[in-house]
Structures are given as C-alpha cells and as structure tokens.
C-alpha cells in the first residue's frame, strides 16, 4: 500500500540539486563582486588618506599660495605647483586635440574598410603600438621625433601661424630642444592606440540597420557615417577620449624626456615646461623628510589624483548626456 501511495520523482525534483548549486554559485559570485568593489573603494580611500597625511604640512604652510606660486626652491623651502599644473594641462590638451580626430578616423577605417589585406595589418599595428613601453616612446621621441620637429615643424609654425595676431604668442621660437609641443605630440602618439581600440569596438556595435536606413533615404556612405554611426557611438567615443586623457595625465618617462623640464610658465608651445608626474619622478628619490620637499611632492600627487577623479566624474556626466542626446 505504501509503495502504491509513494509518488515517483518528478523532473523538477531531479533538477533541484543542480539549481541549488547554481544558486550557491550566484551567491558566491555576487558576494565576491561586492567584496572586490568595497575593496577598491577602500583602497582608493586609503590612497587618498596617505597622500593627504603626507601633503598636509605643505598645505598648512603655504595654503593657497601652493597653487598660485611659481617658485620651486628646495634649498629655501619655497614650493609652488602652478608651473607643473600648467604644463600637465597644456600637454594633455595638446595630446587630446591631436589624437582624437586621428583615432576616430582610424577606428572608422578599421570598421568600414572591406579589404582584409588593409584592415588586419592596421588592427595588429594599433594593438602593437599600445604594447610598446613608454620609455621606448621617449627614446624614439628624443632621438628621432624631437630633432625633426625642431628642425622643420617649429620653424614652419613660427613662419605661418606665428605671424597671426591671435596665435603669435603660441609659436614663439626658443633655443630649447625640449618643449611642450614635442611632449604633446609624443603623448598623442601614445594614446592613439587606446582611443582607437575602444572607439573601434564601440563603432562595431552600431546596428547595420542604421546605416542601411540612412543609405535607403539617399545618404552617401560618408553621410551615413556622419548622421547615423557617429551619433550612435558618441557616448563610447567620449568614454574612450577620457581613457586616453587619463593616460596622458599620468605619463612620466616620455614626457620628462621631451618637455625640457623648464620651470616657468610661457604661452609659447615651443618653450620648455614641466608636468606633475615628471617632477615627482625626477625629485622624489632625492627628497628628504627633513624639509618640505617631500610633503610638496606628495601634495602634487594629491593634486594629480584630484584632477583624475574630476575627469572621471566629468566623463560619466558626458557619457550620460551623450546617451540622452543619442536617444
């Protein structure tokens, strides 16, 4: 009687252990993800705390003069960050203005060209450029790029754009070998692979229906890209640009080799300059804990982190705004 009343195992009951293991796996994955996220936030907070503790003596002694002063004298404990902030902003801006149109055009070429004989070698070349160490870029720029730019590009800019009323101050020639223009160009070369790779993946996700709809309405291939592809990929291009800008802000070795490491602020792009990463790399080893130099360098590092965090927040806002405009 008991054998008759006993119901056979259903398919749902047979799958219960499997589903239970899947639920356990989902819980482990969710917990691990939350733990890693909290750990990253804690790591960032610890980094900011260490930098703030080290930079506090410099901020307490100099106050706002630390951001406005142009002096950097370790012997007399006089430190000002303005030349380094200026050099970092100028070189990064030059890099983005130079690299963005080239990167977007190259990404469009890699996605739109039909010939594999052209597309595959270019894709491999872009990936290889992203893997080259920065010191190699710096040595190539020092021995190949800088002499070429100083001999041909700088005189040409001075003879053409340098004679215009508004742009004349930007191209005043100087005898220095290193200058901010050279540093900006080498940074542009270094961030082109990053922006190109991300932009290429973003453009590849654009639905083909948008291209076909634009061409069905009579648009040419160029018009279809301009009116359908680029607006749809705008948010991704903004994100890729911010990634490249972050790389440009933090670059050290190549910039230090080409910028001239000159303390001062000049409107001319052909004048030497200095950046925050370069000054930290050049002087941190020799900085002692007795004076204010060590604290001033940590203050510069904190300023650089603040700039990076501001750009990250700005990039998120720009991406969201681009998504709303695209929708």
Describe the fold and architecture:
This protein is mostly helical. It has two domains: 9-57; 63-326, MetI-like fold, CATH 1.10.3720.10. Helices cover 75% and strands 1% of the residues. The protein is built from 13 helices and two strands; from the N terminus they run H-H-H-E-E-H-H-H-H-H-H-H-H-H-H. It has helices at 2-5, 11-62, 65-68, 82-112, 116-131, 134-159, 180-204, 208-216, 221-232, 234-250, 253-258, 276-283, 293-326; strands at 72-73, 78-79. The protein has a two-stranded antiparallel sheet. Strand 1 (72-73) and strand 2 form a beta hairpin. Helix 4 crosses helix 10 (234-250), helix 7 (180-204) runs antiparallel to helix 10 and helix 12 (276-283) runs antiparallel to helix 13. The longest helix is centred in the first third of the chain and has 52 residues, at 11-62. It starts with a helix and ends with a helix.
Helix/strand class: mainly alpha
CATH C-level class of the largest domain:
Mainly Alpha
Within the largest sheet, what's the order of strands? 1-2
Helix count, DSSP H or I runs of 4 or more residues: 13
Total number of domains? 2
The CATH homologous superfamily of the largest domain is called MetI-like
